[in-house]
Amino acid sequence: MEPRDYRPEPDSHRGRVIVVTGAGDGIGRAVALALARQGATVGLLGRTPRKLEATYDSIVQAGGPQPALLPFNLETATATA
Predict the structure, then answer these.
(1) Burial level of 68, CB count in 10 A (0-12/13-18/19+)?
(2) CA distances (Å), 66 to each of 39, 43, 48, 73, in order?
């Protein structure tokens, strides 16, 4: 089987919690939506709350598990002492 022919079983990720970076758009959004369709509870990590909320709404409207919003800018994050 070619990798592009892979089709996961429905609910193959049920019971899993997976954090997706860049979940507001592009590949990150597509991955978050696909994981939610497979039953995963998704943590939506990204720097733009408005985009994360749109992904959140898409997952909930499709009947997926309620995701978690994790707005956070990794580029400007600093460690605290």
Answers:
(1) middle
(2) 10, 9, 19, 22
Rg of the chain over all Cα atoms, to the nearest angstrom: 14
Q: Is the pLDDT of residue 81 over 80?
A: no
In angstroms, the CA 26 to CA 24 distance is 7
What does the pLDDT read at residue 47? 94
Helix axes 49-61, 26-37, angle to 10 degrees: 30
Expressed in angstroms, the distance from the first to the final Cα of the chain is 50
- Looking at the DSSP assignment, which residues form a beta bridge with residue 70? 45
Query: What is the mean pLDDT of the segment spanning 1-25?
Result: 89
Quote the pTM value.
Answer: 0.86
How far is it, in rounded angstroms, from Cα 62 to Cα 29? 14
